[in-house]
Amino acid sequence: MTQLTNEAIRYIEANDTGLHYYEMTPAEARASRTVPKWQSSLTPTLASIEDKKITVRDGAKINVRIYTPIHGKTLPIIVYYHGGGWVFGDLESADAGCQLLAEKSQAIVVSVDYRLAPEFPFPTPVYDAYDALIWVYEHAAELQGDPAHLIVVGDSAGGNLATVMTHIAKRENGPKITAQALIYPVTNINFTMDSYEKFGAHFGLDTVGMEWFTGHYLTEDNLSNPLVSPLQAEDFRDLPKTILLAAEADVLFDEGISYAEKLSAAGVEVQHIVMPGLIHSYFSKMEYFEEATIETVEKIATFINYTLS
Questions:
Q1: Runs of H (alpha helix) within the chain
Q2: DSSP helix/strand/coil, 56
Q3: Active site residue 280
Q4: pLDDT confidence tier of residue 34, bands split at 50, 70 and 90
Q5: Which of 2, 117, 190, 283 has the highest Cβ tally under 10 A?
């Protein structure tokens, strides 16, 4: 029996009343999910935080936010992809986690504001994510970053995009990604694994919520596309070292285990870490889960430092 943390219980009670996001339009859901700015004695002091626009393949411009912990030193680079089911989320929703990642990893973090469904369904978010990765790699020196130490990180749908980047980069002979850190990633869209049965309602991400997200993001004929469900990829060899952090009470728990197992079976070094008593979407919800978010970032930072040593 899963014993939820007090923070998870408080979050569920606060958010399990009234209209749910999946009963709203995407625009209404985005407005309802506005994340308050993190204000805490634990907020790090970074050398700089800069917003920039970059151009992607169709000529559009998307936003990135660059977090630099110190100046005057060449640092590893983390490319971060926020969660939100490909439908909501933005630079602000990922801001606290990215600040912490920059400080605790002593790495430059580039947070990517990829375009969202349903206005920009699959594959646009994937293309934006990869174009941003290429931009970071090509501008590494300008960012004071080391292109040989390139890491992708993401939570939920952002974890999905992060790991999809590793498959594309390998296939396209793109930038060499040193490591990936995946926080409760989407890896297999089929809604049938046991964790959907256990945690499909009232645990932060409902089954109907996942159906709502994917219905806006893609058409049914793409459900098993490896660029949507990377668990369905044919080849897992030569992918980067991986840390996968799972919320214990999460509909995505089982597909995370399956993904870690496939990577490991292909010879990829994997750490699979379960965060006990936590639910999907805890990361960066600082008004509820500050301690758990900091603990998660510390585990990722330890993994990155080990990987680069």
A1: 6-15, 26-32, 95-105, 124-138, 157-171, 194-199, 207-217, 253-265, 286-308
A2: coil
A3: yes
A4: confident
A5: 283
Which of these, 183, 193, 190, 191, lies nearest to 163 by C-alpha position? 183
Q: Is the pLDDT of residue 1 over 80?
A: no
How far is the C-alpha of 81 from the C-alpha of 75, rounded, in Å?
Answer: 19
- Known active-site residue 250: yes
Exactly one of 93, 105, 156, 284 is catalytic; name it: 156
Q: What is the pLDDT of residues 230-287, one digit of tens each?
A: 999 999 999 999 999 999 999 999 999 999 999 999 999 999 999 999 999 999 899 9
User: Could you give the angle at the alpha carbon of 178 between the alpha carbons of 42 and 169, nearest 5°?
Assistant: 120
* From 113, 128, 250, 254, active-site residue: 250
Q: How far apart, in Å, are the Cα atoms of 193 and each of 58, 198, 254, 290, 295?
A: 37, 9, 6, 29, 28
Determine whether 111 is an active site residue: no
Three-state secondary structure call for residue 296: helix
**What does the pLDDT read at residue 60?**
98
Pairwise pLDDT comparison (15 vs 80), residue with the higher score:
80
Asked if residue 209 lies in contact with residue 22, where contact means CB atoms within 8 angstroms, the answer is: yes
Q: Spell out the domains of the chain, with CATH numbers in brackets.
A: 6-308 (3.40.50.1820)
Tokens of 247: 């919320």
The answer to whether 265 and 231 have CB atoms below 8 angstroms apart is no
